[in-house]
Amino acid sequence: MDYSDETGNRRRISLGHADKRKAEAQRAQKERELRMGIIESASMRLSQLWADSQARTRAQLRQSSLADADIAVRELIAVIGDIDCQKVSHKDGEQFLQACLDKGNAIGTANKKVRTVKRVFELAVLRGFLEVNPFRHLRGGRVPQQEIHVYSEDECHRLLKAAREFDDPEGVNWELLIALALSTAMRCGELLNLVWRGVDFEQQIVKVSPKLAADKTWVWFVKDAERRTLSLTGDVLNIFLQHYEKQPEGSVYVLVPACRYEHIQQRRKEGKWSEQDGRIPINNFTRRFSRILERASIDSGTFHDLRRTCLSRWLENGLSEYDVMKLAGHSEFSTTQRFYLAVRTDLVVHQARLGRLSFRTHSAALRAGFDAESRAPVILDSRFRGNDKSQNQS
Q1: Strands (DSSP E) found in 205-359
Q2: Which run of H or E residues covers position 185?
Q3: How far apart are the C-alpha atoms of 212 and 225, rounded to whole Å?
């Protein structure tokens, strides 16, 4: 049998038989054992494996992605222990997934953590630290389809009115924020990281693009790395122009007030500002929006529901699925459909009309059956026969 030893040199030994298939299986097993011998000498614990992975990929990943991966790996270690990475098994993966669910994580969140750790192990295989990925066959739980909440037209009007009257402590223009979200489907982070150089009043467009860390801007990345150009409608453009006229000379960000911007710049100088902070640069954003919902007499909803509302209206008003997907910044329409698009109003109305038509058809058929009862009597199932009192007495 010819095989390669741990140094890569070719070796030959006698097997004592002439079975070619058996010899090939023995060769593969021999080389596998030799490779495992090399791995064992350089084996490491999970914490060491993760530290090595971070050192190799830190400059290639977003800070937010690294932070999410760090949380997932640390939680894995907390569940199964800081064991030798070669001793991690599929059973450990199942235990980790269940621990995430027991902790109160949603199924989607638990699945994401499993995918993150699985990717770490995949890289370990490619780097020669593992023979196989121990989580390669691990499957997450099935995520149920969530109800997609969109605001009605009346709720949108009430939201804009409440935002106009809301006295924000830092001077955030909530009316413009909500109007832009409803008309462009921009995400919260995209709106708050919009800069004036990305706005073209003449062409009536805004550009969604990443920002590098510079003197006047902090680092921020577009989700899914999708740059987009979106148009401004007439009503929103008027609100935009009014906002522009009130801004101090030299303003950089459209929706970050001057006082907040100066505070952020000071924190950047002190080294206390991170990429994670730049995703939503306004403090207590959700709490403030909840106060606007309350003023608008709307019981439930999120700021992200404004984006869902806009995308659903686009599809309802005739935009193609592909156009809605591209304007949303998604790479696949399945993402747009699963998480953003509510059932179109016209489809509900159409279904209701067909339902009424179907009911009338069935009603007519039933009446025809009653009219023809003498000619074609109904034959009851044997379980329902004999219910006549006279028959029951026998």
Answers
A1: 205-208, 228-231
A2: none
A3: 13
Neighbouring-strand partners of residue 10: 4
CB distance 267 to 273 below 8 Å: yes
C-alpha torsion angle, residues 180, 219, 209, 326 (rounded to 10): -80
Output the pLDDT for position 348.
47
- Between CA 148 and CA 217 the distance in angstroms is 34
pLDDT tens digits for range 270-287: 999 998 899 999 999 999
Three-state DSSP class for residue 150: coil
| DSSP type of residue 84 | B
Give the model's pLDDT for residue 267.
Answer: 96
Asked whether the beta carbons of 68 and 116 are under 8 A apart, the reply is yes
Positive or negative torsion for Cα 275, 281, 285, 289: negative
Q: Would strands 199-200 and 10-12 be described as parallel, antiparallel, or unpaired?
A: unpaired
d(CA 233, CA 236): 5
The rounded distance, in Å, linking the Cα atoms of 303 and 270 is: 31
* Chain centre distance of CA 91: 27
* 240-268 per-residue burial string, b: 16 or more CB within 10 A, e: under 16: beeeeeeeeeeebbbbbbeebbebbeeeb
Q: How far apart are CA 78 and CA 75, in angstroms?
A: 5
pLDDT of residue 90: 95
In our burial notation (b when 16+ CB lie closer than 10 A, e otherwise), range 343-352 reads eeeeeeeeee
290: left (phi over 0), alpha (psi -120 to 50) or beta: alpha
Whether the predicted pLDDT of 381 surpasses 50: no
What is the distance between the alpha carbons of residues 326 and 323, in angstroms, rounded to a whole number?
5
Maximum Cα–Cα distance across the chain: 101
